[in-house]
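Worked example 3. Consider a protein that binds adenosine monophosphate.
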Amino acid sequence: MIVLGLDMGTTRCKASCIDATGQPQIVANRRGDLYTPSAIFFEDGRKPIVGVEALAEGLLQPEHVHTCFKRVLGSSDVLYTDVDGKAYTATDFQSIMIRAIKEDVEQRFNEEVDEVVITVPANFQDHKKQATIDAAQAAGLTVKKLLHEPTAAGIAYALDKKQDRCFVVYDLGGGTFDVSVMQTQGDSITVLNSTGRERLGGEDFNLCLEQAVVEQFAKDNGYTPTMDKDPLFFQELSEKVENAKIALSTKSQTRIVIGCRGQQSIVPITRDQFESLTKVLLKDTLDCTNQAVKEAGKSWSDIDTIIMVGGAVRMPAVQTALADISGIVPHCDIEPDRAVCYGAASQCAMELAKSGKTLMIGGRAIPTPKAFVQEVTAYGVGCCVAAKDGSLSNAVILPKGTALPTTRTDRFCLLHESQTEARIEILQGQEGNPRDECLSIGEIVLANLPVEHQKTKRIEIQYELDNNGMIRASGRDLVGGEYVEIAIDYCQGTKQQSTSQHAA
Ligand code: AMP
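Given these inputs, the predicted complex is written out as structure tokens:
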């Protein structure tokens, strides 16, 4: 029996299973590597190949290699059409990656896998979560749970240390930044707060360096390469910049040698220069971290430890800056590259135990990790309401940081007494301007409302969030009894999927 945890990163994917001693281990892919780059290339314009091989092909045909598609997961945009006219979205790409990793695991253990826990960024919007579930399903896997990445790392840490602690998980991966404040007490692991940036990761640090190298190249050679005209230059540059960034984590200087159209530049770069180019990004993560601690109702003096996870925390500036803001020396007690994936496998084992099954390996029952994990929402959920002056706002029904699963209800008045229809727009986000700061994720329409000449809070809205943070919503007119319930279909952005409508 295989208990599988997947960390589907923006730049690298990892798989982990529980071994015969009950501990999570990373499962090497068919090449023997501990991770698979999140990259896809279509051989002969048709057959997808993934990982290192895809990146290698991309060096010659950069326009045909696809990377960083996790950033647009959930969008219906077609990213590639193959020679047979088959269209691929980011969800299809993610599914190809998941299938490849599943097959590698199956090949290694000579056994089929059908259930999985997949980690996602803490602030992943619901349509992206749904796309992750769909991608796994299309790859032949049932998702037992989507686990927030920093929570997964926190679980791995808590199960490893078995001490009562209040700690911060600072997770800087390839494409996203997440931070969680967590507390452990006995077998219970509670997430007090989670926040992050959906588009801030090691890739963005690379982009700052890439830009500086392009500027230097232009200065040296009087020609500015562009993505349209010089795709090979940019493909080579991205590989060299990645290597230079990693070198600067252990060396104080390095250089990038790059050529284009018969011209060449040798660009020396010091760690100080790199840190100065990227200081805005780092500051953003620190602001987020301070905010997470504050929103958890804690101050730094309440925090025992900072756990650093994600490959990009290997940049020395991260550790120094975290120590500066917190007065705590952060540590990587648990391998930063592996913690999230370890947590996913442990959670999968816990899901198995919850369903009353015993993990068997080689005919032996394996002890499963024991913990009760309490998650919170990383977003508020509310509905769009209008004031008398016509200004709109998000009336938050489920505030950010609400423990999952949960159900909350609130009641509202109609705007005009003569109104016979109410359109309730469901918003994901915090209080504030619904148009700029919130995502509209669905609409409930209550029709045929009897006119009532008194202004009462007659419209009842209920939101239900499941363990994965996915929403179900309903609206009821307490006067006429009209009732509408919707499950949200994220495939097309914000479409209603099922509407059951009846008068009570
Ligand atoms: P993850 O999603 O956790 O696998 O992290 C991937 C990110 O970590 C990529 O942006 C890598 O460039 C970055 N990374 C990995 N190792 C290092 C290192 N030694 N120094 C700086 N960044 C690194």
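Take a moment to read the result before moving on. The chain has a mean pLDDT of 92. The CA atoms of residues 306 and 472 lie 35 Å apart.
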